[in-house]
Amino acid sequence: GAEFRRFSLDRYKPGKFEDFYKLILHIHHIANLEVMIGYADVHGDLLPINNDDNFFKAVSSAHPLLRVFIQRQDEVDYSNFGTNTLSRKKKALVTLRNDNLRRRPHINISMPHDFRPVSSIIDVDILPETHRRVRLYRHGCEKPLGFYIRDGTSVRVTPHGLEKVPGIFISRMVPGGLAESTGLLAVNDEVLEVNGIEVAGKTLDQVTDMMIANSHNLIITVKPANQRNNIIRSSRMSGSSGQSTDSTASHHSLPTSHVLQNFHPDEMESDEEADIVIEGGLEPQHIPKLHSLTSSSLSRINGSSLSHRLQRDLVLNNNSGRESNGNIHKLLSSLKTDPRHSLVIPRGGIEEDGTVITL
Amino acid sequence: MRRFLRPGHDPVRERLKRDLFQFNKTVEHGFPHQPSALGYSPFLRLMAIGTRSGAIKLYGAPGVEFMGLHEENNTVMQIHFIPDQCQLVTLLDDNSLHLWSLKQHSGASELREEHRFTLKGPPGSPPSATQVTAVLPHSSREVLYLGTESGNIFVVELPSFRVLEDRTITSEAVLQRVPEDYCNRRSCELVEALQEHPKNPDQILIGYSRGLIVLWDLQNSKVTHHFLGSQQLENLYWQRDGSKFISCHYDGSYTQWPVSSDNRQPEPLENLVPYGPFPCKAISKIYWQTTKNGLPYIIFQGGMPRASYGDRHSISVVHGSQQTAFDFTSRVIDFFIIFSSEPAAEFDDPSAMVVLAEEELVVIDLKTAGWPAVHPPYLASLHCSAITCSHHVSNIPLKLWERIISAGSKQNIHYSNMPWPIDGGTNIAPDPPQRDLLLTGHEDGTVRFWDASGVCLHLLYKLSTVRVFLTDADPNDNMNTLGEDEWPPLRKVGTFDPYSDDPRLGIQKIYLCKYSGYLAVAGTAGQVLVMELNDEDAEHVVDHAEADLLQDQEGYRWKGHEKLKTRDGPVRFEAGFQPFVLVQCQPPAVVTSLALHSEWKLVAFGTSHGFGLFDHQQKRLVFVKCTLHPSDQLALEGPLSRVKSLKKSLRQSFRRIRRSRVSSRKRRGGSGNASEVQEANAKFDQDALQEMELAPVQRKIEARSAEDSFTGFVRTLYFADTFLRDSSRHCPSLWAGTNGGTVYAFCLRVPPAERRMDEPVRAEQAKEIQLMHRAPVVGILVLDGRSTPLPEPLEVAHDLSKSPDMQGSHQLLVVSEEQFKVFTLPKVSSKLKLKLTALEGCRVRKVTVANFGSCKTDDYSENDLAVLTNLGDIQIISLPFLKLQIRYPCIRKEDVSGIASCVFTKCGQGFYLISPSEFERFSLSTKWLVEPRCIVDMPEVTSNNHVHNKSGMDNTARKS
């Protein structure tokens, strides 16, 4: 059973977490309980409020409503935090790796749940030490992927000795982009695979297209230019999973399989199933832009993220093309306050130059 | 489960695939790109064209064609047929000679290279010593005479190409008897021309570039006559009886010389500068043709007054008092005259002149008064105006076919009725299985209808949309009509005219309904025309509507071109397709997609701003939908405007040349402009190159977002009668796919036929699908209950297709550039998909449903998707399970314009441009294969020796 309260806070001076915590306990008359406070962020993710900083962040991200979830400390399932918890059924990759890992009771080392994963190194156990497989989580993230790739030459060890072969390299990182912020990719890293497909023999444009096509869930295998930061593991110590292969330093070729080994292709696709279909024939329903808390378990949204939901609202109001086109404009203007949508009409008005090349 | 059902594991299917699919490039249609040499065999009645890329193409009667390619890909400089043989020799610009022959193989003739040879001089000699400048295949068929830059003439044996050193004609031997003072003034220099005596095969005429001409006796190896020309020599031509020959010169003059046994140093009979007295350009080739009535035909290339007409590409025909200077729009490569090759005939009696210009083939009928042009059955200049789009319609009903032909024949009345004079060989290919039309849209606002059924791509009818609009083009701008006393008597011939006066007229999309004869064309300035086929001329008003695709979007400023101005009042249209409705999109952006439903009488059109639906029965706009993302304006002003300005500046520079051509009559140095432009272009190219080098080759990796540019660009429109709202009632619907991966579906209410004019057509948006990967939607298709694509409008009404299955549930196939995806209908939920880009890194460029029949049994056929990717590969993907069947490399991936021009047919064939002027035809089907199959028989060789001499006529060196 859940119950709801609605109250207001000063957006600009929210005060201290300590006070907020007390306020919550007071409002709910549960002063004697240990509770965990969480909130729904703009992407529909459940994030914790447990210090002044994330409290401030939570309040400032409210527009204007902030959904706050309160749970007993002993009932909290920490794995619910992060990764689009509120909007998706399928778990993120951390738990996909193998079943052993998933079933293992959660060890609460510190508070890793305060953060949403933006990237991870995966398949460490099956890759040579010189390679690194990086997954970039872009779902609902405001940050651009933010990197560039280029052509280059790479030196390979072959039975005939060293051979120069063409390769694809990371050429530039956009400051503040996702790729840069992970710290897992760097300029001059050689790209070996994109989502399990080898890039050898493919042109820069092909690799670009592949990366963009996979951008919702991009997994790049690189050979880092800087090999000093590699994880040194002795061959028998990689016991994080029961499936350690004998991929030692001598094992220099990549797995021949075209599909990532520990990775079921269906799961890779899970993220993108969510094409949005809008039944325009219905009466436009009014879907409030901000959902007030009705139940602590209700909040899975059908689309993949709230931002889509907003667009959806937009089109719903616009279902009968001809008459209501003008509404777009008004709607858009009304959305100006939403910082994530750069739908704001620029001051100079919209101009365009009409020539389009048709080939 | 899926991984176990991969294609390739089922042997039955594998066998079936072999019976269904097969890739062949079958024939090249159109005009060879950059032709460089021309040859003709009066014996075989075949013409040969060589190109700068080393291709050699032979043409005879319609359907008879052969192609060969020199391995070296070097420019073909000269082509000479061996007299009375199915053989020819080509000279390339690397000084190599190649012997080709037509050999019969399994019932058809094939062109094959037999030998190659490069003339080698003695060690230490300069390369010029053996640089071949003139080739004479002797009528004995045993030897070739090779004139060189050094002035020596080498003799090589055929077909071995063995040099007969003892028979070499050295310039020293030739100069022995030449008067001292003449000799001192000029050395021989290079051999310009070699001509065999028409009656006496033991004598050859040798012309040296400095003007000396000698008659050489092959038997006695000595000079019998010296002709001391005073002007730099260009070419020579024998009169038929061998009593006289004519020489033409660099200064624009020609000279007649008598050949008689008593006179060893003849004086010229006549020396004439036809376009004098002011300095003239060279006459590079000349013919002297005798006729029964005594008046000869003198036909020569060039010779125009240097100052005012030096930039013209002309060939003059003089016959008594008649004189015409045919004025070609592109450089003349070479020409030949078809005349009586009957050895017994006393006179030449020329019948036709065949001119190979750089961009087209022009044939002039010399027998009919007025010398009209002959309509060539092949070698059509597809690029008379640049091709902007193409549309293929298979299996045209006979009725429509005949009406189009009849409309076309009314346009061709100014052509000669002469049967095609180049008629060698026999076409033994089976008759084309069906009547196919290829429609090409052009930059000048015309649509050309080509008969694409067989090997010869033949122009049936040309439609111009220009008449509907008011353009800058001055209708009275007739450069051709010159007064009677105008000198020189220039007459423009040919159809090649790449200059478009108004680029807004360009045709971008074409849709023809073969059952109703309705045609919709759409263009660069947002114009959409709906036309109807009318067998008579008619004058009527075109109904005009405007579609404001932006609706109430505020603050937009269109910076592109203005919309086209329309003509007020009734307009006269010739028989053929006559427009009756004009819709102009606002803003007047290029129309990017077009669909016509002839049964519902609706036309849908889309631009980068949105799309609209027009009822062409009631002439009423049904609705418009803006698809524009409000933040898109940056991209619209971005890189594209730069491209545009580039194109614009090029166009302007062309216009400048054109203007200068017109006005250069009064000015000197007309040709200076061209070189200036060339310089400017070269500089421009260099700048562009530099810019490319400076920018590092790197690619940004970023997910597509709603804010990307051109997301609103409407890529595809599709009409379907399907279950859009619920599974019990189907209704007409319109589907639109955008660049941003959005699909819009509109439910349409079309009143029944009896109330069609009384009630309005209504539309209501029923669905909107946003593909998560946001890639551009390039194709939309509905599959019926049997998973068969829905038939075309009126197809069922004409009993040409089964009615679609409306019982089973329908499926929606959405093809984006990145993946294929099948959804259920009416509830749109994803059923299956095939990812292309994520796995292979290639993107869909073109996609069509094609029907493939089995070559083994007549009763099996299936529908598949034919897909062209941005890498130039063709993939065939099965329906409805989306399994990759087969993949063929087809177009080089660097050939962007080739890939963009590709059009598939409904029977598994396709066309793409290999040059601006040539379509390559390919076939994916084992069943439908249109390729040349022909046979060239050796005509019976007459014992009469004289026939040999006539074949020597085309062996004059080509001048450029």
Automatic annotation (TrEMBL), chain A:
Residues 235-255 are annotated as: Disordered. GO terms for cellular component: apical plasma membrane; bicellular tight junction; cell cortex; nucleus. One of its GO terms (biological process) is regulation of cellular localization. SMART domains: PB1, PDZ. Residues 235-250 have a biased composition (Low complexity). PROSITE patterns: PB1 (PS51745), PDZ (PS50106). The keyword NAD does not apply. The keyword Aminoacyl-tRNA synthetase does not apply. It holds the Pfam family PDZ. Residues 133-226 form the PDZ domain. CDD domains: PB1_Par6, PDZ_Par6-like. Keywords: Cell cycle, Cell division, Cell junction, Cell membrane, Cytoplasm, Membrane, Tight junction. Its main location: other. It comes from the Eukaryota. Residues 1-73 form the PB1 domain. It is found in: Cell junction, Tight junction; Cell membrane; Cytoplasm. Belongs to the PAR6 family. This is PAR6G protein. The gene is Pard6g.
TrEMBL record, chain B:
SMART domains: WD40. It is found in: Cytoplasm. GO terms for biological process: cell division; cortical actin cytoskeleton organization; establishment of spindle orientation; exocytosis; Golgi to plasma membrane transport; regulation of establishment or maintenance of cell polarity; regulation of Notch signaling pathway. Residues 658-669 have a biased composition (Basic residues). One of its GO terms (cellular component) is cortical actin cytoskeleton. WD repeats lie at residues 69-110, 433-451. Keywords: Cell cycle, Cell division, Cytoplasm, Exocytosis, Phosphoprotein, Repeat, WD repeat. Pfam families: LLGL (PF08366), WD40 (PF00400). Belongs to the WD repeat L(2)GL family. Part of a complex with GPSM2/LGN, PRKCI/aPKC and PARD6B/Par-6, which may ensure the correct organization and orientation of bipolar spindles for normal cell division. This complex plays roles in the initial phase of the establishment of epithelial cell polarity. Interacts with GPSM2/LGN, PRKCI/aPKC and PARD6B/Par-6. The complex is enhanced during mitosis. Interacts with DCAF1. This is LLGL scribble cell polarity complex component 2. The gene is Llgl2.
